[in-house]
Amino acid sequence: MESCPSIKNILLLDSEGKRVAVKYYCDDWPTNNAKEAFEKAVFTKTQKTNARTEAEIAMFENNIVVYKFVQDLHFFVTGGEDENELILATVLQGFFDAVGLLLRGNVDKKEALENLDLILLCLDEIIDGGIVLETDANVIAGKVASHSLDSGAPLSEQTISQALATAREHLARSLLK
């Protein structure tokens, strides 16, 4: 009997190998120090590759790591050595595209940190307990958008309401100075 594909972790690191958003789904790395050591080692091994246009695959510590870079962000999906690389790559592409949709194409560290809540919700919509739930970026972004502040508002309207809220905050700050 075949088992469900499982993911060990999803990492979103910056261009220096520091955490932006990470989620672990297994106990292979029991302590925070072990997790950070794994992240640093994976980052160091992959930083000299050119994974900007297509996802790359590497074997690392008996794990398959699929990764892709954009701007100053590095996306990683890790699975066991028996895992299907195509499934890992599909999860990575779904996460990558959903983040691109949610950040409206402006995928960089600053924007990711400002919208960290959306990225963490995105991770929750893709994987639950290591089991892949969804890989379609449009579905993922739609579900994340519906969890956001204006629940029920479509993604396109929500970005306008978020822009208005930001403009309102800037106006209030400038008036208070």
Question: What do these coordinates show?
Answer:
By secondary structure, the chain is of the alpha+beta class. The protein is built from 6 helices and 7 strands. It has a 5-stranded antiparallel beta sheet, with helices on both faces. Helix 4 (116-126) packs across helix 5. The longest helix has 22 residues, at 155-176. It is globular, with a radius of gyration of 17 Å.
Task: Sum up the structure in keywords.
single chain; 177 residues; alpha+beta; 5-stranded antiparallel beta sheet; two-stranded antiparallel ribbon; 6 helices; 7 strands; globular
Shape: globular
Summed over residues and divided by their number, the pLDDT gives a mean of 82
Low-confidence stretches: 151-155
Q: How many runs of DSSP E, i.e. beta strands? A: 7
Q: Strand order of the main beta sheet, please?
A: 2-1-5-4-3
By secondary-structure content and strand pairing, the structural class works out as alpha+beta
**What's the total helix number?**
6
The end-to-end distance, rounded to whole angstroms, is 67 Å
Indicate the proportion of strand residues. 15-25%
Order of helices and strands: EEHEEEHHHEEHH
| Structural Rg | 17 Å
Helix content class: 40-55%
